[in-house]
Model the fold of this input.
Amino acid sequence: MTIHQAVRRKITIALSVSAICVALLLAIVRFWPDAPWAWTGTFLMLGAITPLLYAVWLVSCPKCNAIFGQRKVFNVAFNLAGILYCPNCGAALDQPSHGP
Ligand SMILES: [Zn+2]
Done:
């Protein structure tokens, strides 16, 4: 697995968890707004926001462990803006994420 794939995997999982929580939250709001268990939507809100904060603040380069940050992480994950090297350590994003 390359650095690019490893970062994209983390971001995809985070965005998927967030999207599922948003969908469940919208379902509660739409179909069961007065249910006695509707308060669990609070945790769904946390579940929607936390993965986004994780993606922006905590996803790091597998080589140098430096956090990409909000300006770079989506560019690296989805190959936007033509970033081919880690902005922190200069490692090529298509080299294996583990090993020498
Ligand atoms: Zn790096």
About this structure: The longest helix spans residues 3-31.
